[in-house]
Specification:
- Helix content is about 25%, strand content about 25%.
- The chain has about 325 residues and is α+β, with helices and mostly antiparallel strands.
- It has 3 domains: about 1-35, no CATH class; about 45-260, Bira Bifunctional Protein, Domain 2 (BirA Bifunctional Protein, domain 2, 2-Layer Sandwich); about 265-315, SH3 type barrels.
- A hairpin with a 5-residue loop joins strand 7 (about 165-170) and strand 8 (about 175-190).
- Helix 2 packs across helix 7 (about 230-250) and helix 4 packs across helix 7.
- About 40% of the residues are buried.
Length: about 325
């Protein structure tokens, strides 16, 4: 009826199978698409189908591989792409971490993505966007456990290590890192021309290099099952659009403070503040309305305010 040969159908079915689509073949009958909910298919169509946003991820650009999704965003910004443009990839060959570090990217199983923002905000409040992003990934992580059998979900405790590391503890064990976030900004004539927030998510990676294995893990390892990367991607930007709106209304954390602190695993814990000038040890007591960490020093002096940037915070007994 359609004038398509059996060979042409077969070739296209093979392409879909290579992308991960679960397809059943029955001799003399044809092919049937099975449920994709439990499959790990990462492509533009699967992500777009789960997005409920107005502007975040619109347009959505998916690449099998790229150098750096942050770099891609700045190229697109120069070409006139709008606020909300999102680049998603399953592999980076030149990924970037904080302070010029390289972000290690295996060949498959993870998600790397960056969004283009053109905010009408003063430059001094834009560092808080990294913390807004961390809250959004944390909330998306909770969404993923909602689909998990209750007994398995109860074994995992997701959280935020201030300011922007998403971590998970399994069976009350040590917290390990799932996600890295890097925000970069471009200025023109002392005004913000473009901001990008880049995220690297360890999703279905099952092994880690020895130098990072102690502190790193993946959603798949934590939950004990393969995780749908398209769902996790869409959940993240669904939450981010809502959180971004609340943040820009007040340009502080007044509307997001409580939600962030619910996930803050540093709160109530002993921490080392690795300030190059005056390092000290104390107890984290929460964050303020600028997303800065509040720490009560062990020497009994006044509570200190710790801004993100070149200061690192580490647990006294472990990563958190």
């Amino acid at each position: 009826m359609l004038g398509v040969s059996r060979t042409a159908v077969w070739k296209n079915i093979q392409k879909l199978k290579e992308e991960g689509y679960p397809i059943e073949a029955v001799t003399n009958k044809g092919y049937r698409l099975l449920s994709v909910d439990e499959a790990d298919i990462l492509d533009r169509e699967q992500i777009a189908a789960k997005l409920t946003t107005v502007w975040a991820g619109r347009p959505l650009i998916y690449k099998e591989e790229t150098g750096s999704s942050n770099d891609d965003i700045f190229v697109l910004a120069a070409q006139g792409y709008p606020h909300g443009t999102l680049v998603v990839t399953s592999r980076q060959t030149a990924g970037k971490g904080r302070r010029g570090r390289t972000w290690i990217s295996p060949k498959e199983g993870n998600v790397y993505m960056s969004i283009l923002l053109k905010p009408d905000l003063p430059a001094e409040v834009t560092p808080m966007l990294t913390v807004v992003m961390a809250l959004s990934v944390y909330q998306a992580s909770l969404d993923m456990t909602a689909a998990q059998p209750q007994e398995s979900a109860a074994r995992c405790r997701f959280g935020i290590k201030w300011p922007n590391d998403i971590v998970v503890s399994v069976d009350d064990g040590p917290y390990r890192k799932l996600c890295g976030i890097l925000t970069e900004m471009r200025m023109e004539d002392r005004e913000i021309s473009a901001i990008t927030i880049g995220i690297g998510l360890n999703v279905n990676q099952m092994e880690f290099a020895p130098e990072i294995a102690e502190n790193a893990t993946s959603y798949g390892l934590a939950l004990g099952r393969k995780v749908n990367r398209a769902s996790l991607t869409a959940y993240t930007w669904n939450h981010f659009e809502e959180n971004y709106s609340l943040f820009t209304q007040t340009q502080d954390f007044s509307k997001l403070h409580d939600a962030y602190e619910q996930g803050l695993v540093n709160k109530g814990r002993s921490v080392h503040v690795l300030d190059p000038r005056t390092p000290f040890t104390g107890t984290a007591v929460g964050i303020n309305m600028q997303g800065e960490l509040l720490v009560q020093p062990d020497d009994g002096s006044a509570v200190r305010t710790i801004a993100s940037g070149e200061v690192s915070v580490r647990g006294v007994q472990g990563y958190v």
